[in-house]
Amino acid sequence: MRIYCTNESIENIPEGFDEKLDITNKKDIGFNFWDNYIKLEKEFSKLAIDLLYLSIFVFVADRIVKRDTQNDGWTRTIKLNVPVSDIDFWNSQKVLLTDMLNFLSGDNWTFEFRPKTVYQEQIYYSSKKYKELDKRIYDKICMFSGGLDSFIGAIDLLEYSTSSILLVSHYGGGKGTKSYQDDIFTAVKEKYMLDDRDQVQSYVVARNGREDTTRTRSFMFFSHAIAYASAFGRKTQLYIPENGYISLNVPLSGARFGSSSTRTTHPYYMKKLQTLINNMNLDIKIINPYQFKTKGEMMKECKNSSFLKDQYVNTMSCSHPDNGRFKKEKTSKHCGDCIPCIVRKAAIISAYGKDETAYRHKNLEKSEAGILNRNAFLQMLEKHNPKRAAFEIQKSGPLTDNLFKFADVYNRSIEELDKIINEVDVNEIN
């Protein structure tokens, strides 16, 4: 599919294109970056804004092009024509971009670039609201999704320093993600005496999204953080807290290489993204301080264990927290069946012995998804050979550094999971 992407209002799809995506058209894309007024040391890098827009077009295209209509039921060919501020630079990055995104989503992405003629940032900087703001000074960003890992990441950073960290969140459709982000940020703000402006919540949604296997969300999410960091005016650390098991996300079986194997923080993808940042001449370093930690170890080693224990129930780890709306549930909650929920349970039980999280299904025999995932875990645990971990972990992607450290965290994560899949009766899992 060939898609014409634009940041200026046009009525018709240009000849030769199948779709048009207009970032200024709320019927196409919900987008609030320019509504989150914040004054930093410098203006945003033009290349960083290019990357932000490109990532949003990729994310929305990912949502509107169905996989089940493809010949293999999965792999799509998507070509985007995107306006940018520097055509020569982005043409020089085509190979890197396509390699990174093909790995991330399992598709075939190609790009064409044309000159950008409209710069929304000029309107932003000239607004009265922006001019009246006080400058904010940061040198760190922590991704703050509302999940357990990002909450631990924020706690550990804030225990060290509260004055230089910007928390960056993203939410889309549904009620689940934003409400958990709000609750957790309120707790963090009160605990560490932060300002409301120390968090930005970025809203991006594909209005006509119909594909549920979105794999490019992290590219869009991280690009927001890169845009903000580009204006810090100093060397910046971009923290992306994620436990090693989920980061590697080794498929449970040969049948799960596609739909159940996301690569949102896989080390290979992170290395590609860091290379792109370096090529943009941005002094931003991606850091995942937990890449060699299990989720349970993250909880046990949190720098404020009492605060974490008091608040962890208010975090959201589930892949689809809003599914209960089909059953007319008024509030979102963890499903209890998906892989992130199962990993969460294992970590909490490992750390505390009991999990107080509210789950839609308290055990893995209450739904088809729960039964399938439990059986897949059982098969994986039965076949698991710790001595072959260095080979197993590369099924989800190549690893060029720290192979044996990744193998160790994978083996320790399997031990955490084994305790709830095998040692705890399935009907007793909270």
TrEMBL record:
Name the Enzyme Commission number(s) assigned to this protein: 6.3.4.20
One GO molecular function term of this record is: ligase activity
Q: In which pathway does it act?
A: Purine metabolism
User: Is RNA-binding set as a keyword in this record?
Assistant: no
Respond yes or no to whether keyword Nucleotide-binding is given for this record.
yes
InterPro entries hit by this protein: QatC (IPR049676), QueC (IPR018317)
| Name of the protein described by the UniProt record | 7-cyano-7-deazaguanine synthase
Native organism is Peptoniphilus ovalis
